[in-house]
Design a protein that fits this description.
The structure holds 2 protein chains of 2 kinds.
Chain A: E1 10-14, E2 22-23, H1 25-32, E3 46-49, H2 55-65, H3 69-81, E4 89-90, H4 94-103, E5 107-112, E6 125-129
Parallel strand pairs in A: 2-6, 3-4, 3-5
Antiparallel strand pairs in A: 1-5, 1-6
Chain B: H1 2-23, H2 25-28, E1 33-46, E2 60-75, E3 78-89, E4 93-110, E5 114-124, H3 155-158, E6 160-172, E7 175-184, H4 191-198, E8 205-219, E9 224-238, E10 248-262, E11 266-273, E12 276-280, E13 289-292, E14 294-305, E15 308-318, H5 327-333, E16 341-354, E17 357-367, E18 386-397
Antiparallel strand pairs in B: 1-2, 1-18, 2-3, 3-4, 4-5, 5-6, 6-7, 7-8, 8-9, 9-10, 10-11, 10-12, 11-14, 12-13, 14-15, 15-16, 16-17, 17-18
Classes of the chains: A alpha/beta, B mainly beta.
């Protein structure tokens, strides 16, 4: 649908408290469009994102969600400014994203696979897309 | 002059406040609370008629929007949110700073696919695709929302009101479903609103008594949105001591149908309605009447570059379905026929210079004056049927 062969692949990461090993594409899209607000079992989801113009964000939204970044921003603005949902928390780079997901129960985020210099499995969990 | 100088000072003050909170943005960014906001200034120039200020053969700077939005999640089942808005829009809106909305949303049922809740307070009223965020420039498809559906002169009736709204949403393989059902006490008491419903600003008070609203929205897995909104709002008129109107009431009923199809970079949108306005008991000057109007728009947006978007739209409005071209009005009361219709072609360009800064330009080619703000054009005999308008907007967000 959205060809992006030049873009890097993105890994989906969650806080270790999140009791899932894999996630469906539909569920991931529902989480990032703020439709699904809790994990199975009831834990509240906290969504982390990189800035709209970050290449890793672009790769993630196009490959994993099938949505362009501007489209996601429209959805977040509509739901957050009307008071219907909490907008995702935007962090400045992948280091901060890794740190925030590690520290926040229920958190979900994503990392560029090439950015794996840090010990990525230290305190965060990578989950697979079904 | 004094008033405009004062409002310029208050906009500077608010801009300062926004700047200060922006500087401390990192401190506010916690997982459970959030402050965000925007500031926008629009320049308007037009031919033949005024739109939001003295725009005719001149440049009006009288369209300023500043907003500060707060969100707090004290419990997983309780969301508090609100917005403070500074808005100035020509002669129709000189209220300046106001509380736009403040609501508590209790989510009494939540699982991983379904949420049920009730919102209490000064609540945002769901109405069509854009109403709930109509003052956030970034969420609009163009500088001005389609006036055929989102008439700015009667905005205060629909924007937010004290009340309660039940809402439910669920997501499954057929897409996402949202339902709302609410009661509120709408605000009819402004010069611009009286202009729309009573023909001109009257000495007495028009007080909203009740509004019932319900909406159903379906977002399909194929990126199509279907939405129906129904609203039934009533207001009572209490005459002044010296008044040619008698105590009476007005009622607005409307079913708004909205549809949107989203492709990767193209968005097609249409909204259609036939609002029914009725009035009774106001006396011989405004005899009891029921009038159906008709309006719709068709809109195409194209994000041809990640930072650039083109929008083209045609808006149609007939204030009286039984007198579409206004000839009966002209014959019966000697008023200009073009008061009863608008056919507006809009072309606009949006440039997201950075994720925080947006610049926009837009051009309107208009036939008819039913969408003209009355307070900016006090002499209806001086308005002209055909007019054009250009707008430029700069908007910042944080």
């Amino acid at each position: 649908m959205l060809a992006s062969s030049t873009l890097a692949m993105a890994d989906i990461i969650v806080n270790p408290s999140v009791n899932v090993r894999s996630i469906s594409a539909a569920s991931l899209r529902n989480i990032y469009t703020l439709r699904q607000t809790s994990w199975p079992g009831g834990q509240t989801i906290v969504v982390f994102v990189l800035p709209d113009n970050d290449p890793a964000h672009e790769a993630f939204t196009k490959e994993k969600l099938g949505l362009y970044p501007y489209r996601l921003r429209q959805i977040w603005d509509r739901l957050s400014y009307s008071g219907m949902a909490r907008a995702p928390i935007e962090v400045k780079d992948e280091n901060e994203l890794r740190a925030r997901v590690r520290a926040t129960p229920g958190a979900i985020g994503y990392l560029n696979k090439d950015a794996g210099k840090d010990t990525r499995h230290d305190g965060i969990k990578t989950i697979t897309l079904e | 002059m004094m008033a405009s100088r004062q409002s310029r000072w208050s906009s500077l003050l608010l801009a300062g406040l926004l700047g200060a909170s922006n500087a401390g943005a990192d401190g506010f960014t916690d997982t459970r609370y959030r402050i965000q906001g925007f500031a926008a200034q629009t320049l308007i120039s037009s031919t033949n008629n005024n739109f939001l200020g003295d725009s005719r053969d001149s440049i009006s700077t009288d369209f300023t929007e500043l907003g500060l939005h707060g969100f707090w999640l004290p419990l997983d089942s309780l969301q508090l949110s609100g917005q403070v808005l500074y808005r100035r829009a020509g002669e129709s809106d000189q209220d300046g700073l106001r509380l736009d909305y403040a609501q508590a949303d209790w989510r009494f049922y939540q699982d991983d696919s379904t949420q049920l809740g009730v919102k209490l307070g000064k609540v945002k009223i769901p109405y069509g695709l854009y109403n709930e965020t109509r003052d956030v420039p970034f969420t609009r498809p163009s500088i001005l929302l389609p006036q055929a559906i989102y008439l700015d002169t009667s905005r205060s009736v629909l924007i937010a009101a004290p009340g309660a709204i039940f809402h439910g949403s669920t997501v499954n393989t057929y897409g996402n479903f949202d339902v709302t059902l609410g009661w509120a006490r709408p605000d009819f008491d402004s010069e611009a609103v009286e202009d729309v419903f009573l023909g001109s600003n009257q000495p007495g008070n028009l007080d909203g008594t009740s509004a019932f609203s319900t909406s159903l929205r379906w977002d399909t897995p194929t990126d199509t949105t279907f939405m129906l909104t129904y609203i039934d709002a009533k207001a009572d008129y209490a005459p002044a001591r010296v008044d040619y109107l008698a105590p009476g009431s007005i009622r607005v009923r409307n079913l708004l149908a909205s549809v949107q199809q989203r492709f990767d970079t193209v968005t097609l949108t249409a909204e259609y309605n036939e609002p029914r306005n009725s009035r009774s008991g106001l006396g011989a000057v405004l005899p009891d009447a029921v009038r159906d109007s008709l309006s719709y728009y068709l809109q195409a947006e194209w994000r041809f570059h990640p930072e650039w978007e083109l929008v083209v739209r045609n808006e149609i409005n007939h204030r009286d379905k039984d007198d579409k071209d206004g000839t009966q009005l002209q014959a019966a009361r000697g008023l200009p026929a073009h008061l009863l219709y608008t056919d507006d072609w809009v072309v606009g360009l949006r440039w997201d210079v950075t994720p925080n800064l947006m610049l926009r330009a837009e051009y309107h080619h208009v036939n008819g004056t039913s969408g003209l703000p009355g307070p900016d054009n006090p002499n209806i005999f001086a308005t002209e049927q055909r007019w054009n308008m250009g707008l430029l907007q700069a908007a910042y967000r944080f």
